[in-house]
Design goal:
By secondary structure, the protein is α/β, with parallel strands linked by helices. It is built from 13 helices and twelve strands. Bound molecules: nicotinamide-adenine-dinucleotide.
Amino acid sequence: LKNTWRVLVTGGAGFIGSALVGQLLASGHSVLTFDKLTYAGHLANLDGWLDHPNHSFVQGDIAERAQVEAVVEQFQPTTIMHLAAESHVDRSIASAGEFVRTNVIGTFTMLEAAAAHRARLDGAARERFRFLHVSTDEVFGSLGPDEAFDENSRYQPNSPYSATKAASDHLARAWSHTYGLPVLVSNCSNNYGPRQFPEKLIPLMILNAVEGKPLPVYGDGCQVRDWLHVEDHARALATIVERGRPGEVYCVGGESERTNMEVVHTLCALLDGLRPRAEGRSHAELIRHVTDRPGHDRRYAMNIARIRAELDWKPRETFESGLAKTVEWYLANGAWCAKVVADAASRLPRDLARKT
Ligand code: NAD
């Protein structure tokens, strides 16, 4: 195979990272997954890929310099795709320390290790090296009804999670400008799809609905998010590494804006068809409005003109077809759900575990 990469994927045992690892291996690249296996990371997410001849897994912490340096030295990556992060907004509101440590110190540690590694490469290998920093649209704050975020949007993070992601974006930019590290940054909208830990909106609603539990919707449920299928996101990340311009930012999104209430009603309608409740009652009867999240952003939307025009990437999955497949995946993978929830409960402090 020509032009294959040796990719160090941080956070590869998480939701997006595992989809990315699968795609990279399918494309013939070699992958080393480096992941701490927090409550959100599970080897079960890499089922089918753990024994792949081009894949290795190392458990480790991106904020531990010695561990990061050792894995970079041993693997000699051509490419680092950095996804490891604490990623759940509600947890960041309850307890922000781990978010600062992993998202800020961890990204700093990865950038330093990458710069030192690249400095030791020679000629073509140095030219070819890339560092992709994977980030979120949440760093740009909240939008009014008619605007969309793009690569020049002002940073206005509102939650502890988005503040730490914003800080990490700035570090990534600085390592590009100051040290000439070929960094690419992607800011992506909300993802959905298989293997998302059931604390996030879509899997939480599916699993609660199946168990006949209440479906808690924050506030009026009119918050708007732009949804992208995780396989489309993973394909965007590989495309950015392959053809993106170092030093640039790429906004990634699904052009599928939905209010949270629309998402939950669509899920309920899908489940009414696939898993009817007794006496023909709709799952929508389980919806309960609960006190809104403090500082909850009202609307996110993405202008994806740059990645479309420059890199010829666009989403392939429509929200309707992607959501239907996702519901089917969760219904068919009850064992995965039970395993990751049980694993997480054993790894989280008790007060935080109760939230899942
Ligand atoms: P996730 O929570 O499912 O996975 C995060 C992974 O990182 C887990 O496997 C976890 O074990 C690992 N991890 C956490 N701390 C670590 C540490 N200190 N050292 C090593 N590994 C550690 O998250 P996700 O939804 O897959 O998100 C991945 C990335 O994409 C994050 O950087 C996130 O900010 C970004 N992102 C997510 C979304 C989304 O909708 N989920 C949207 C845009 C961007």
